[in-house]
């Protein structure tokens, strides 16, 4: 029986999300739509290994982003974030 | 999106961890800290994808090294550490990740903290710094079960002295060498305070390893005054625990 | 698909048993999560059946455990392709829980502690097809597998068997739940391989 915390972080979703976003998402900053915390996507709690990937706010566990890859396409829900800010200065 | 790499060389870091060197002809280059996704496909089309941190610094030869630790009951790691042979081809996607990276232009002090296999991306940072001839002050705290579990042992031992030095502290959690000053135990706040750059230096901190290790250590850093923005973390773990 | 990895076969065992299309047999029990494991103290646990406006039935842990239970064996089919056969459970049949519930509703939206939901036709919960299960393999259901209690609807893909179940809302229309609203099939019959919306 493992007491391991069952999440990774936003870095683990970056590969899947590279199918959707042309720019790296781990460095992007997002605001949680529930508690207002603003963090880099890399810090999100990443739940995966199930039907899809769920990224949750590291403060309140609200679902920020969900992504599912199916044979009919990639489904993305980012309603859990008030905004996502991508750095364009590179 | 998926590129094909050919296995050039294999090197056992420990009894359970192996470094795989790949040649990827169209590799676009990578930053220290980034990772790749590897995809393995069985003859009936079944595919498994896993993420592995890049261990090597970007070189001019389109080479990418990963270090894989064999997980008990793993689906992919036993194959990568025991069956893959020189000449085999592996599919990979990447480089991935833009947050947990160290760029050689960074001049500030850097604190690296590794838990077990979390040493891999941090080693890429050390190697990149060496290859670029940089002297940004680096320190490494490397938590590992026992001396036989150390990855890149010879290379860490041979790190340059003087201006280019990297201070390496090992924290053994299960078994320490004879006469080791610290009995085997987990990394605690006192150790972090003793061997890491102080907060007032405002170092960039990179913490990598299993989720509980990363959370604990990041909290120690934060509690001792490091600004949250200067603490970058990457959590490792099996994708979908198996019981 | 371009590359076959020499000698890689994954975790699968050759299947003697009849499995739904695209599934492989597993002997372990993967823990797959869409969120953190809720920890629900038994003195706070409750299960309700409501119609969106009124609570029709409510049980706390004590009254729930006074209901007649059944032990049963079920094959589990996860949409991520693993199947685990002949798993052994104890639970309360949904037929028992709906015994005094009068409704014209055709659909159910199942709620878990946390934010997970899943939907299915009400008739798929009836007629010995579904249970609220609280024991697995002769032990109390562990939190990481959905304890203290989870829904089990073995004839549909396992994502319909909501872990950490807290209640059912009766609906006139089918309303997609957590995964159904993001590309997964609204019904999810493994034998017709209804994994994704758009599958027949």
Q: If you had to describe this structure to a student in words, what would you say it looks like?
A:
The complex is a heterotrimer of chains A (90), B (243) and C (200). Chain A has one domain (8-85). Chain A has one helix and eight strands; from the N terminus they run βαβββββββ. The longest helix of chain A has 4 residues, at 14-17. In chain A, strand 4 (45-47) and strand 5 (53-56) form a beta hairpin. In chain A, strands 1-4-5-6-7 form a five-stranded antiparallel beta sheet, with no helix packed on it. Chain A has a three-stranded antiparallel beta sheet with strand order 3-2-8, with no helix packed on it. By secondary structure, chain A is mainly beta. In chain B, a hairpin with a 5-residue loop joins strand 3 (35-41) and strand 4. With 243 residues, chain B is of the alpha/beta class. Chain B has five helices and eleven strands; from the N terminus they run βββββαββαβαβαβαβ. Chain B starts with a strand and ends in a 7-residue tail after the last strand. Chain B folds into two domains: 2-96, Elongation Factor Tu (Ef-tu), domain 3; 110-236, Rossmann fold (3-Layer(aba) Sandwich). In chain B, the strands form two sheets. A six-stranded antiparallel beta sheet of chain B has the order 4-3-6-1-2-5. In chain B, strands 9-8-7-10-11 form a five-stranded parallel beta sheet, with helices on both faces. Chain C has 200 residues and is mainly β. Chain C has one domain (47-192): Sulfite Oxidase, Chain A, domain 2 (Alpha-Beta Complex), CATH 3.90.420.10. In chain C, strands 1, 4, 5, 8, 9 and 10 form a six-stranded mixed beta sheet that branches. The longest helix of chain C has 5 residues, at 61-65. Chain C is globular and about 60 Å long. The two termini of chain C are 24 Å apart. Chains in contact: A-B, A-C, B-C. The interface between A and B is medium-sized, with 26 and 26 residues.
